Amino acid sequence: MIVVDSSVWIDHLRGTTTSQVAKLRALVGVEPLVVGDVILCEVLLGVPSEREAKAVERALRQFDLVTMLGVDQAVRAATLYRALRTKGVTLSKTIDLIIGSWCIAHGAKLLHSDRDFVQLERHAGLVAA
Q1: Mean pLDDT, the chain, as a whole number?
Q2: Are 33 and 65 in contact, with CB atoms under 8 Å apart?
Q3: Which of 15, 20, 49, 84 is 20 to 30 A off residue 127, Cα-Cα?
Q4: What pTM was computed for the model?
Q5: Domains, the chain
Q6: Rounded to an integer, what is the distance from CA 96 to the centroid of its chain?
Q7: pLDDT per residue over 55-83, tens digit each?
């Protein structure tokens, strides 16, 4: 199972060529790809019109959609944050903490292009796709 972060979806939608976008395109239809609810929200926040937002939502709904934050996951994410803080590591975005901790808890790989996730790889066992 591979979770695709909003950083990759946004580059893909903008037509930006990155190694992560190339990997995403190669994985579609080959590997099970997951879109978290918070990732869907992040992607849709940047879409300029309702018409485009509906099209992007339809496109992302073809993948497995999961809820990434419930009560138990919120506690896991906060616990991870405190553990990282004791190591001197602070993530800049709470949403990345939520996504990363969900991936760690569910054994999912994460396809991303965001430096917060690199910290989670180094210090918390997140596996990049």
Answers
A1: 96
A2: no
A3: 15
A4: 0.94
A5: 2-128 (3.40.50.1010)
A6: 7
A7: 999 999 999 999 999 999 999 999 999 99
